[in-house]
Amino acid sequence: MPLILRPPRAEDEAALRRMHEQLLADRFEVLLVDGTWEEVLETLRREAAGVDLRPGWVRSDFLVAEVDGIPVGRVSIRHELNEQLLQVNGHVGYAVAPEHRRRGHATEILRQSVARLAALGVERVLVTCDEDNAGSAAVIEANGGVLEDVRTVGERRVRRYWIDAGAPAPRTG
Questions:
Q1: Beta carbons within 8 Å of 87's beta carbon, 6+ residues apart
Q2: 40-59 pLDDT, tens digit each
Q3: Is residue 171 part of a domain?
Q4: Burial degree of 32 (CB within 10 A; 0-12, 13-18, 19+)
Q5: Strands, sheet with 146-153, edge to edge from the N-terminal-most edge strand
Q6: Rg of the chain's alpha carbons, rounded to an integer?
Q7: pTM of the predicted model as reported, rounded to 2 decimal places
Q8: 145 vs 75, 85, 92, 126, 129, CA distance in Å?
Q9: For residue 8, what is the domain's CATH number?
């Protein structure tokens, strides 16, 4: 079955909270919201609608990456860039749970994310990763990412790539 991106549901709580704990070791937060699961889902719905955004946030879609009914990862697709996103985080932030890695899921998550942004009218998509994250760099490059530069931001060295959203990326999985 193919990978699909969809909004989180009530039954995703255990899987996403477990993924969140696993990925904290990689300095990556799966859940960007604290609170009860109902509060988390409501905040994500508001952010997708661009309503009552938190300070410094832009309209964004938080989507679960699912394969065969199992959440394998997640993605945040930001509809526009503010200064923080332009410098460090980009349009797309994705992660795959450790037990689901090395199966092409991250490449497909990013491919679908770029297609969604293209449908929103975004022509160039900024995607970043830590300089030492060779796996993420390979995913971005497989999706047509062209390295613009590497920046030092605080303690981090960040690779910044641009993907032409008008050019079809290779399809995987």
A1: 151, 153, 158
A2: 999 999 999 999 998 889 99
A3: no
A4: middle
A5: 4-6, 60-67, 70-78, 92-96, 124-130, 156-164, 146-153
A6: 15
A7: 0.89
A8: 17, 17, 12, 9, 11
A9: 3.40.630.30
